[in-house]
Amino acid sequence: MAKIYIKNAEQIEGIRKASKLAAEVLDYVAPFVKPGVSTGELDKLCHEFITDHGAVPAPLNYCPPGYTPYPKATCISLNDVVCHGIPNFNKLLKKGDTLNIDITVIKDGYYGDTSRMYFAGEPSIMAKRLSKITYECMWLGINEVKPGAHFGDIGYVIQQYAEDAGYSVVREFCGHGVGIEFHEEPQVLHYGRRNTMDELKPGMIFTIEPMINAGGKAIRSMPDGWTIRTKDRSLSAQWEHTILVTDTGYEVLTVSPDMPSPPHFIRNNH
Length: 270
Ligand code: MF3
Ligand code: CO
Ligand code: CO
Fold this sequence. Notes:
15 strands, single chain, Creatine Amidinohydrolase, globular, 4 helices, alpha+beta, three-stranded antiparallel β-sheet, binds cobalt (II) ion, four-stranded antiparallel β-sheet
């Protein structure tokens, strides 16, 4: 049994504030995403917004065992980059590029973690469909969240939906408990079987952040020690929210004025 933190009211309020700020960063950066801008510039804009709001970017110098310190404030993952793309002033967005911007902030000691997909100019029909299906995967996972459900239920619905669409689920990276630390237990797998893994309890806070590939599930790591790409160079997409388990269902903590609405098939009576 994993040691999953149950957060108290004060901790929940702190994590709620950090999560909102992380989502507001994603709102703020949206109008700057267009062909010709560098991912380094987008990172700089996010970094400044975060510090201007009395917070710290959690990725900067983050150094899990076996890694080198992460050099930037955000992760920006283009096209076939699955996750942990390192922003770079020499990497200019091209028309039709798809990208995930992933923001984790530390505000008053608490963490909030969220990411969205963006397009530089008009994307291909294929890229749009991959992003949409991935967004629906995330929300189908969120929709499972309530006391008594199991983490395996989340993975199950995500895997089913992605594979029915002809896509594959990345296995090496997963969602995670979050709030008091950056990456807490449990690992929230985006594949699996119903009624497996730990049971969800009120006060748990974790991310759901499926990485879905248009081609095969295999990945490869780049020599920079961070960047992950699809092995077959197919496109990859990801969306991420931080979720609180409530007494009756869930609360999405990473909310902001411009966040995309849930898909129509999601219940809102939690
Ligand atoms: N924000 C990522 C996540 O969703 C983690 C990024 S780790 C970093 O878990 F060091 F690359 F920033
Ligand atoms: Co993240
Ligand atoms: Co995360």
